[in-house]
Design goal:
This protein is mostly helical. The protein has helices at about 5-25, 60-65, 75-85, 90-100, 105-110, 120-125, 130-135, 140-150, 155-170, 210-215, 270-275, 305-310, 325-340, 355-360, 365-370, 380-385; strands at about 180-185, 190-200, 205-210, 245, 260, 265-270, 285-290. The strands form 3 sheets. The protein has a 3-stranded antiparallel sheet with strand order 5-6-7.
Length: about 425
């Protein structure tokens, strides 16, 4: 075959190959799986939510954080603080009264405020100026503590037991001249709990301690425990570097009429003691604590369940924004509180991560500015409605875990002025 013939053949083959390549379908490049997203940086291990109904409100770490300053109080005093914390506005007024009457304490102080419209649980704490004044100075903490207790009293009492066990294991919590620490078995749950009672039933000592010391290594680095150093006036020469310090004992026998029902997960009311000090609000028998929405005085509830359970019991609550937790109202509340002589101070960074807790320090809202004086009711009738829960032991002693909360809306208690 001649050269021309060969060239023609080669050209023909090349053209055929080119035509075949153009006719072939164009294949899309292979689809690669997406690159895995980089793992987010985590500063601390995720915190397990608290059991029960507070899982969407506060985590276990947050509850332990706010309970740290009071978990080692005597059982009866602890129960009064928990009940009173659900009434932030009353606490602020009672703290102001206590500061204005520095010489008043014990049962005598409680009788001196008998005519006040505050909830009886709040009035009981004027017996302990160092307690009520600290609560008045820390409205953010008080409101969060009360909201956690309303959401699930069981979770809050569980927290106290966890912290007491840690303090015992750390060698910080033990019996002394001021208190008796014991391990008791709850007849309901058959579990063990740590109980704390005054060594002398006639005298109550309020312990002061640094949570970072008494509890040992804190398990929640992102939520360090609250610490409120005690006033030197009530704890002269107290040294907290080694554990728990006790100041001057308080003669309070009738003032403490509540007690922690560890097995039931709520607070019991001793009617005999209650009636001996709350002469205008007597009750008919032993009961469990029930929150009185009227004494909330417009301070918004944190979670939806509490809003629905208690907010509807206040006249006009469905027409106001007081129970919706709006920031503007809480800012107004803080302004009102400052006008009454309180300075909530800057937000404690240790409580970060609790949602809108920076606004929760507003102790009052606009309702407490424009509210009318509370109506007065007859003592026996209103008192019975106020604490008329299911019967309970006068002093719910030992036990370990909790099996339910004793909550419910109660009628408003009245008082004479």
């Amino acid at each position: 075959m001649g050269p021309c013939r060969s060239g023609a053949v080669a050209t023909t083959v090349a053209v055929a190959v080119l035509i075949a390549g153009c006719a072939a379908p164009v294949q899309a490049p292979p689809v690669l799986p997406p690159a895995p997203a980089p793992a987010p940086s985590v500063a601390a291990p995720p915190l397990a939510p608290a059991s029960g109904s507070t899982a969407s409100t506060f985590s276990q770490a947050q509850i332990d954080q706010m309970m740290a300053p009071i978990a080692l109080y005597p059982d009866s005093l602890l129960s009064q603080v928990l009940m009173a914390s659900t009434y932030p506005a009353d606490v602020a007024d009672a703290a102001a009264w206590s500061k204005a009457h520095p010489g008043q304490s014990g049962d005598a102080a409680v009788r001196a405020v008998d005519a006040q419209p505050w909830d009886p649980s709040v009035k009981s704490l004027v017996a302990f100026p160092q307690v009520i004044q600290t609560m008045g100075d820390k409205p953010d903490w008080v409101q969060n503590l009360g909201d956690a207790f309303l959401a699930s009293s069981k979770d809050v009492l569980d927290s106290a037991q966890r912290l007491r066990s840690r303090a015992q294991a750390n060698g910080s919590l033990k019996s002394s001249e001021q208190q008796t620490v014991a391990l008791a078995q709850d007849p309901q749950t058959q579990q063990s709990v740590v109980t704390i009672e005054p060594a002398n039933p006639q005298v109550v000592y309020v312990p002061a301690y640094d949570p970072a010391i008494v509890y040992g290594t804190w398990p929640y680095p992102a939520y360090p425990p609250y610490y409120y150093p005690p006033a030197a006036y009530y704890y002269p020469g107290a040294a907290l570097a080694t554990g728990i310090a006790f100041g001057i004992g308080v003669a309070a026998t009738a003032a403490l009429w509540g007690n922690c029902n560890w097995g039931g997960g709520n607070v019991n009311i001793n009617a005999s003691r209650y009636n001996s000090i709350n002469v205008n609000r007597k009750i008919s028998g032993n009961s469990t604590f029930q929150h009185n929405a009227a004494n909330r005085r417009g301070v918004p509830y944190r979670d939806n369940r509490s809003q629905q359970q208690y907010g509807r019991n206040v006249p006009g609550a469905d027409q106001r924004g007081d129970f919706r937790g709006r920031d503007a109202q809480r800012q107004q509340a803080q302004s009102t509180m400052q006008q009454r002589g309180f300075d909530p101070g800057p937000r404690n960074d240790a409580f970060r991560g609790v949602g809108d807790t920076g606004q929760m320090q507003r102790d009052f809202n606009r309702d407490s500015v424009n509210r009318q004086p509370p109506a007065r009711h007859s003592g026996a009738a209103s008192g019975g409605a106020r604490y008329g829960g299911s019967p309970g032991a006068a002093h719910g002693g030992g036990g370990a875990r909790m099996s339910g909360g004793g909550r419910g809306g109660g009628g408003r208690g009245g008082g004479r002025r």
